[in-house]
Amino acid sequence: MTAPAPGTDGPSTRPLTAQHYSVAPPPATPEGYVAPGMPGAPVAGFTPTEPTPGRTPRHPRRTALAIFLALLAMLLGGLAYGSAPLRAADSLGWLAIAPAGLVALPLGRLGGPSRLLPPLGALLAAGALLLGQLIEHLRRLHPEGPTPDGLLHDTLTTWRTDLRPLDAAFYAIALIGGYLLTRRTATRS
Q1: Which of 62, 99, 125, 140 has a C-alpha 20 to 30 A away from that of 72?
Q2: Dihedral sign, CA of 37, 41, 44, 49?
Q3: Which residues pair with 7 in a beta bridge?
Q4: Which of 120, 112, 128 shows the shortest CA–CA distance to 80?
Q5: pLDDT, tens digit, for every residue of 103-142?
Q6: What SS3 string covers the chain?
Q7: Rounded CA gap, 121 and 174, in Å?
Q8: How far is CA 85 from CA 36, 55, 124, 155, in A?
Q9: pLDDT above 90: residue 1
């Protein structure tokens, strides 16, 4: 079968039949044409703008600054956690999320979305909790002030003997909270 050819008297009135080609026919639209509304089509009235000057890519120095500030936040969080009144020590474990938030804020905001920072935030949050518990035990052992002989050994032995199964839940809260809060603050910036 072949395509109908227009006759000498005008176009044929016969219905169009199938056309067979040995080579693909040329496209009916010019090359590079994208129909309006399709992906890649130019938008009427759109002019691209230059990137805003405030949005620059993250530099390694900002990541180093974020890690430094997170370490500082870990020390401050542990100090605040361990310096709480001793009579509130039993109910204080549930505040393990507070040092995690302190650590996560500089890591997420300054460090940005990095694969390294959420696990580091989890470890630093657990470190803040450990430091706070050690400071609390140090205050119990030496209420009048620390003495240099056997200071670390005595504190660690009383901390180990005082560990409860509930402390594992507090460390889990600190680890999970540090990880999730660092990741969440990094995606919001």
Answers
A1: 140
A2: positive
A3: 10
A4: 128
A5: 999 998 888 888 889 999 999 999 999 998 888 888 888 7
A6: CCCCCCECCECCCCCCCCCCCCCCCCCCCCCCCCCCCCCCCCCCCCCCCCCCCCCCCCCHHHHHHHHHHHHHHHHHHHHHHHCCCHHHCCCHHHHHHHHHHHHHHHHHHHHCCCCCHHHHHHHHHHHHHHHHHHHHHHHHHCCCCCCCCCHHHHHHHHHHHHCCHHHHHHHHHHHHHHHHHHHHHHHCC
A7: 9
A8: 69, 44, 23, 18
A9: no
Mean pLDDT, the chain, integer: 78
Provide the token pair at 175: 């680890």
* Residue whose tokens read 């540090």: 178
How many C-beta atoms lie closer than 10 Å to residue 122's C-beta? 23
